[in-house]
Amino acid sequence: MDAAPSAHAAALWVGLHLALLLILSVRVVRLRRRHAVTFGHGDIPDLAQAVRAFGNATEYIPAALIGIVVLALLGAPALLVHATGLLLFAGRVAHAWGLSRSGGASIPRAVGAVATWLAYIVAAVALIFYAIP
Fold first, then answer.
1. Euclidean distance between the first and final Cα of the chain, in Å?
2. Model confidence, pTM
3. In angstroms, rounded to a whole number, what is the distance separating the alpha carbons of residues 33 and 39?
4. pLDDT digits 0-9 by tens, 54-79
5. What is the average pLDDT value for the chain, to the nearest integer?
């Protein structure tokens, strides 16, 4: 039996976010090896930024992916699933890129945070809409 288009859309965004988390994780491991740090960030700025970029992604991505998958399970249009996934992915990439380049405030971090929040809002409103009979 073929999956619904929204399930395929959800699968795409879950896969892309898993790949992003893997990339951010590998970056942390490489920097820890380079600086001989086994735990934490060892007060090394580039490692601290990499740890936070990964940590921040792990704080925001899982809940949003649950929302995306539940939308697909509810039969939401694939376009809605794609819009939510794209907002989240663009936001997480921008935020991680900005945080990896600078520990301070930056435009990519701000854009990433706003895009992530918009994805949360879209998913939350859509899920509430689908929950009302």
1. 27
2. 0.91
3. 11
4. 999 999 999 999 999 999 999 999 99
5. 93
CB distance 112 to 60 below 8 Å? no
Print the domain residue range for 39. 5-131
- Per residue in 96-113, pLDDT (tens digit) is 999 888 778 889 999 999
CATH number at residue 65: 1.20.120.550
Neighbours of 32 (CB within 10 A): 19
125 exposed, middle or buried (CB, 10 Å; 0-12, 13-18, 19+)?
exposed
